[in-house]
Design a protein that fits this description.
Layout (H helix, E strand, L loop, with lengths): L1 H6 L4 H12 L3 E2 H8 L3 H13 L3 E4 L5 E4 L2 H23 L9 E5 L1 H13 L4 E7 H16 L3 E7 L8 E5 L11 E7 L3 E7 L6 E5 L2 H32 L4 H4 L8
Parallel strand pairs: 5-6, 6-7
Antiparallel strand pairs: 1-3, 2-3, 4-10, 5-8, 8-9, 9-10
Length: 260
C-alpha cells in the first residue's frame, strides 16, 4: 500500500503514518512516532503536511490527537479536485492558440480607399469613424450602406459635413487646424479592428490596419473623450470659453510645445 499512497502524492513517511492512523485512530504524535519508528521531529513535520493536504485531521486535546480521513472520503475529494483541474486544463490548453495581433500597412490612395471600403463593408455591429470633413465624402457611401444594413455608424468630423447619416459629432475647426500638414483619420470596426491613417497633399497617403488590443483601446478612449467633450461643450460652452479661453487656450498654453 505504501507505493499506491505515494502515487497519490504522499511521501514514504506520510504513507506509513497514514496507514498507522487507519489502524489506530485518534492517537498522539508521540504514539505515531513509536508505531513508525521515526523521530518525533520528523513525524510532527509529516503530520503537519498530512493535515495541510487534508489527509489527516486533528482533535484538540492534551496532547493533540491525530486521526486519518477515511480512505473513501479522501479518494472522492481527490477525484473531485482532479476532475476540476482536468476541466480547466482542457479549456485552457485544448483551445486553439490565440493569434498574435496583426499589423498591415497600406500606401497610396487606391490601397487606402480599398482598405476603408473593405473594413466598412465587413462590419457587423458598429463603425466609429473619425475623419476630416475634406475626406469624409470618400467613405460616406460605404457608411450609408453599412447603416442601411443595421450597423450603428458614428462619425466624428473635423469641420462640418452634410450627410443623411444618423449620428454625426462635429468638431468646429480653429485657425490652428489649418496648419496641419496631414489630416488623420481612424476607423474602428465592431470594437476589434482598426484602420488609422492620414490624407494630405504634401504627405504620402498611408494607413495602418491592426487588431492590436492597445490600439483598439486607444481609439475607444478617444471616442469616449469625444463624446464627453462634445456634450460638455454643448451644455456649458459659454462658461468654458470664459474660464479657459477660446479653444481652451489657457489650459493648452503651457503644453503647446508638446502638441506641435
Amino acid at each position: 500500500m505504501i507505493e499506491e499512497l505515494r502515487s497519490i502524492g504522499l511521501s514514504d513517511l506520510e504513507a506509513r503514518i497514514y496507514l498507522a492512523l487507519l489502524e489506530e485512530p485518534e492517537i498522539s504524535g508521540y504514539e505515531v512516532a513509536k508505531r513508525v519508528s521515526v523521530s518525533r521531529t520528523n513525524v510532527y513535520a509529516a503530520l503537519r503536511a498530512l493535515t495541510d493536504k487534508g489527509v489527516c485531521r486533528t482533535i484538540e486535546a492534551e496532547p493533540v490527537l491525530y486521526d486519518a480521513v477515511p480512505i473513501a472520503q479522501l479518494i472522492r475529494t481527490m477525484k473531485t479536485r482532479f476532475d476540476q483541474t482536468s476541466r480547466l486544463l482542457l479549456q485552457e490548453l485544448d483551445a486553439p492558440p490565440k493569434k498574435a495581433a496583426s499589423f498591415y500597412s497600406w500606401k497610396g490612395e487606391q490601397a487606402l480607399r480599398q482598405a476603408m471600403e473593405r473594413m466598412i463593408a465587413n462590419s457587423e455591429r458598429s463603425m466609429i469613424v473619425d475623419v476630416w470633413s475634406e475626406d469624409f465624402q470618400a467613405m460616406e457611401e460605404a457608411l450609408l450602406d453599412a447603416e442601411g444594413r443595421g450597423v450603428r455608424v458614428i462619425v466624428i468630423t473635423i469641420g462640418e459635413v452634410q450627410t443623411p447619416l444618423k449620428e454625426v459629432i462635429t468638431h468646429l475647426r480653429s485657425a490652428d487646424w489649418e496648419e496641419h500638414i496631414s489630416r488623420k483619420f481612424s476607423i474602428l470596426a465592431d470594437g476589434k479592428a482598426a484602420l488609422i491613417g492620414s490624407f494630405g497633399k504634401t504627405v504620402k497617403l498611408s494607413a495602418l490596419e491592426t487588431d492590436h488590443p492597445a490600439i483598439i483601446e486607444l481609439l475607444k478612449n478617444g471616442f469616449y473623450h469625444d463624446l464627453i467633450g462634445e456634450r460638455i461643450e454643448r451644455d456649458f460652452g459659454a462658461a468654458l470659453k470664459e474660464n479657459y479661453g477660446k479653444d481652451y487656450e489657457k489650459i493648452i498654453a503651457s503644453y503647446r510645445e508638446l502638441l506641435t
